[in-house]
Amino acid sequence: MSQPSHRSATRWRLLTALACMALAAGCVAPSFVPPLSEKTSASVDVMRQVLAANDGWGAAEGGTRGGADATPEHVFDVRNRSELVAALERAGSQPKIVRIHGTIDLSVDDALRPMGEAEYRDPVFDFAAYVKAYDPATWGKNPPTGPLEDARKRSSANQAKRVVVRVPSNTSLIGVGGDAQILHGMLFLDKVDNVIVRNIHFADAFDYFPEWDPKDNAHGEWNSEYDTVALRGATHVWIDHCTFSDGDRPDHTARVALGRPIQHHDGLLDITLQSNFVTVSYNHFKNHDKTNLVGSSDSQKLDEGKLKVSFHHNLWENTKERSPRVRYGQVHLYNNLYLADKAAEYAHGYSIGVGLNSRIYAQNNVWESKGGVLDTQLTKLWKGSTLFGQGNLHNGRAVDLLSGLRSANPGAALSADVGWQPVLHGAIEQASEVSRSVRAKAGAGRL
C-alpha cells in the first residue's frame, strides 16, 4: 500500500464488486462431508471452537463464534478454489464451517489450470511501453493516465475477478492437518461480522499489475493491491495459528523499473476502515515487507473509536516493517516475539509503528535481534503521540519502548498515557517465557 493514502475508495469499491462476482461464479459443489468418525480427532475439537470469553478485543460485545453453530449441511470440506467459493456462496451468511484440505490455489481457472500474467493481461497492455510512457523524466509527477494506464487497470481487474475471495459473516475457515494452505490470492472480509480463520498457511498474494505512483515518496513507488487476508469494516474476527509469507516469490527477486523495485506484495494481514473487535493470536508472519496495517490512512477519521485489536503470542520473523503499524486504534500487543535482522533479505526497519491517534499498549514482548538493531529501531513515529510499554525485552535486557521513541524523535511531545487499560486478555506470561512459548506454538500446524 502506498503512503500516506493506501487504497482509494474507488479501488476498494472495484475490489468489492469483483469479489462478489467471483463468489457468485463458484459452481463446483463442496465435497461430501464425512461423518465425524471419519475425521481426525483434531478437526473434531477445533472446527466448532469459539474464541474464549476473555481472549482479547475479539471477545468484546458478544464475542466471536464464527461458524460454530453450523448445521451439518453447512459443514464443508474443500480442496480447490471452485469448492471454496461454492461453499461460501451456498451458505451465505448462515453459520458455516469450511475445512481446508491441502493446497488451494486461488489463481486458477474453472478447470483448475494455473493462471498468470499472460492470462490476465489486457491485449492493449504492454509493460515496456508502460514504463517508457510514464517515466518521470518525461511524464513528470502526474499520476498515470491514458490508454496504457487504462489497460493496466483492466488487467488488474481481470486478476481480481479470480484471486479475491470474499468471506461472508458467521464463517469458520479451518485448515485440516499441518499442510492446509491458500496461495496466490486474497481472502476479503468486507463489512462482515463473526469470522474465525485458523490453522492455514497463506502465501504469495502476487499482484501482476502493480500501480506506479510517482508521488509516493520523493522518487515514486510501485504499489500492489492484494493482502493475503484483508479486513475492511469487519467486526468480531479471530485469526489464529496461521502462517503468512511471500512464499516462493520473495521481493528481492523482483525486477527494477523506473528506478524502483517492482512491488508485487502488499500486506500479510491488514485491518482497516472501521474494522473492530479483532484478536490475532499465535500466528507466524515471516519474510515480508509491509506486514500488518491497522488503519489505512490518516484521513480515515471514522476509524476513531474503532480498530480495537489484540495481538498476542505471534511470531514476526524477518518482517521489515509494520508489525504492526497503527492509526487510531486501541491495540494491545502482548507476549509477541520478534526475530529481527539488519542483514536479512527482509532487513529490519522497525516493528511497531506509532501512527496518528494510535493508542498502543505493549506488554511483555520480546525482540531477539542481529545485525545491530538498536532500541530506537523497535518503534517508529508516524504522527502518533502516545505509547505505553511495560515488561518488554530486547536481547535479554529490559527495553523502554517509549524512551527509545523519544530518543529517535527528540522534538516530539510523547506520553505513556494512552487513555485505556486492557481488561480482555488471558494470563500474560513473563517476558522471559515468551520466546520458548511462541516458538513452540505459533503458526499453522500447531493447534
Strand order of the largest sheet: 1-2-5-8-13-18-21-24-27-30
- Rounded to the nearest angstrom, the radius of gyration is 21 Å
* Mean of all residue-level pLDDT scores: 92
Q: Give the low-confidence spans.
A: 1-13, 19-44
The count of strands amounts to: 32
Q: Provide the CATH architecture.
A: 3 Solenoid
* Shape category: globular
> How much of the sequence is in beta strands?
25-35%
Describe this structure in a few short sentences.
By secondary structure, the chain is of the alpha/beta class.
Structural account:
The chain is an alpha/beta fold. It has one domain: 3 Solenoid (Pectate Lyase C-like), CATH 2.160.20.10. 19% of the residues lie in helices and 28% in strands. The chain contains 9 helices and 32 strands. The strands form 6 sheets. The protein has a 10-stranded parallel sheet with strand order 1-2-5-8-13-18-21-24-27-30, with helices on one face. Strand 31 and strand 32 form a beta hairpin. Helix 1 packs across helix 3 and helix 1 crosses helix 7. The protein is globular. 52% of the residues are buried.
Secondary-structure topology with pairs:
Blueprint: H1 9-25, H2 41-46, E1 75-78, H3 81-91, E2 96-100, E3 103-105, H4 117-120, H5 127-133, H6 136-139, H7 147-163, E4 164-166, E5 171-175, E6 181-183, E7 186-190, E8 193-198, E9 201-203, E10 211-213, E11 221-223, E12 229-232, E13 235-240, E14 243-245, E15 256-257, E16 260-261, E17 269-272, E18 276-281, E19 284-290, E20 293-294, E21 309-312, E22 315-321, E23 325-326, E24 330-334, E25 337-341, E26 352-355, E27 359-363, E28 366-370, E29 379-382, E30 388-390, E31 393-394, E32 397-398, H8 401-408, H9 431-441
Helix pairs in contact: 1-3, 1-7
